[in-house]
Specification:
By secondary structure, the chain is mainly alpha-helical. The protein has one domain (6-146). The chain has 8 helices and no strands.
Length: 152
């Protein structure tokens, strides 16, 4: 599963106004000088919260020699994903969003994001130019998708 259905996004962003506020806040960040302070984890968080395939922000390594030498192990994607799941980094992850996104929303998102790490994969998993894992955990997405949504 590479994108989130709207019903699942609505489960993660519990207040309907939050989605609009998030988009406006992100647009403001991207048009300000603060955009240089944003890291991969902030871009990943925004894309995931809007239901998009957050993996597209990262290029797969294709050089066979680099892959054989473990290039994917130092890949920023795995570091960003680890920071997103880490309670220790929560303040850093949420800082640019200035209250638009709160810890509860991040906690909901963590349920559907994979906990992929470089130690779980071999170089051969990346050779064909695709990711060896989905952008969202399909089982958890299906559970959220079938829940009743109260948008009052």
């Amino acid at each position: 599963m590479n994108t989130l259905p709207r019903a699942v996004v609505a489960q993660i962003l519990t207040d309907p106004q939050t989605y609009t506020s998030l988009r406006q806040h992100w647009r403001g960040l991207m048009n300000s000088e603060r955009r240089h302070e944003l890291t991969a984890v902030h871009h990943m968080l925004y894309l995931a919260l809007t239901g998009k395939d957050w993996r597209k922000g990262f290029s797969l390594a294709t050089n066979q020699r680099k892959l054989a030498n473990g290039a994917y192990e130092g890949w920023e994607m795995f570091r960003a994903l680890a920071r997103l799941h880490s309670p220790f980094h929560e303040a850093f992850v949420l800082a640019p969003f200035e209250g638009v996104i709160i810890g509860d929303i991040l906690q909901n998102l963590r349920l559907v994001l994979p906990k992929a790490g470089a130690h779980q994969y071999k170089a051969t998993d990346f050779v064909d130019g695709s990711y060896p894992f989905a952008a969202y955990v399909p089982e958890n997405v299906l559970v959220l998708e079938t829940k009743e949504i109260d948008v009052t």
